[in-house]
Amino acid sequence: MKVEEAQKYCNLMQESKHRTKVIGSLLQGKANLGFLPINVESLYLQFRKTLELIAFGSLIANREKYSEARAEYASDWNAKKVLKLVERLNPRFYPKPINQVPVTGEKYKTELKPVTENFLSRDEFEILYDRCGGVLHSENPYGNTYKYDELWAEGLGWAVKIRNLLNCHTIHLVDDADRFFLIQMGTGKPTYTLFEAVK
What we know:
- The structure is a single chain.
- By secondary structure, the chain is α+β, with helices and mostly antiparallel strands.
- Helices cover 51% and strands 15% of the residues.
- The protein contains six helices and five strands, in the order H-H-H-H-E-E-H-H-E-E-E.
- It has helices at residues 3-27, 36-61, 63-69, 79-89, 122-135, 148-166; strands at 96-102, 110-114, 168-172, 179-184, 191-196.
- It has a five-stranded antiparallel sheet.
- Helix 2 (36-61) packs parallel to helix 4 and helix 2 (36-61) runs parallel beside helix 6.
- The longest helix has 26 residues, at 36-61.
- It starts with a helix and ends with a strand.
């Protein structure tokens, strides 16, 4: 991933921050569209768009290999399919959530510790993606009805998991075990730092 691509990745993460802000406003009742079904549909639309940003971020980080495997990559839109192809090319493609833990006795040092729970896992990505797809279609009057109360109640849990995944995470590049990018969402614009193994 080159500097321009790292900046493109951060731009996607900035958009995801805007979308998670809308998610928070909906869940806190600051944005209310008047009817539970419409609030739920709006919430899950923002989830879906955020998942697509995560998938396209993975594509950016692995674009060269992805474009070799799929010439039409610029027209891809299905996040699940993008992730599956990127995963075949780079099994370590999915963002790895990190906590920055201060080192005792060291004023400016932190350790990068993996987040081990309550973040959106790769498997949960697909579950949420499918759930979003279901909610974003009108109900068939002869099919099952949507359980809007349940979908709304699940929303906070999904929002927390997405935030915990993206807040501070690493991106590992294909065929490059010695380097990774640390992405920090922060309170302003997302930033990146390249880490390389010292030999």
